[in-house]
Amino acid sequence: MSTSTLQPVEITGEGGRRTVHVGIEKVEIRREPNIFGGECHGLYAHVSVASEPSGTPEHSTNFFVSRLIGEPFWAVDATFLANGFPQHSNGFGARYLRLRTLAPGLAAVLNRAATERGLIPQDAADLPLAIPTNN
After folding, report:
1. Which residues contact 134 (CB under 8 A, 6 or more apart)?
2. Are 2 and 55 within 8 A, CB to CB?
3. What span, in angstroms and rounded, lies between the C-alpha atoms of 45 and 78?
4. Most CB within 10 Å of its CB: which of 62, 69, 125, 130?
5. Mean pLDDT, range 87-115, rounded to an integer
């Protein structure tokens, strides 16, 4: 589980409204070639989500998410369950498969983390992502 401080986050899903505990493992700018000869460029993050405030591994799920240039949302690239089993894994920035976006509460935590790390301006969290070309 996360070495970062867990933050309680309210999310709404199929089962209704609930609180999860989120640890941000990593948020960074990433640039990689895609399978079509182009390039994926944007933010990449690893987020641990636990159902219990203790954040023990048996209650956590790991999400690997990205927000590419021009996108106002975070998309889930891969999900690994608490036992390490991959629920799905598409690779960084894969947009040619089924797109799953992150819950708004989790996205807000990631936008705040990206802002705190100086990766995006504070007023740009809900706008299409723009990253200076030198990054």
Report:
1. none
2. yes
3. 11
4. 62
5. 88
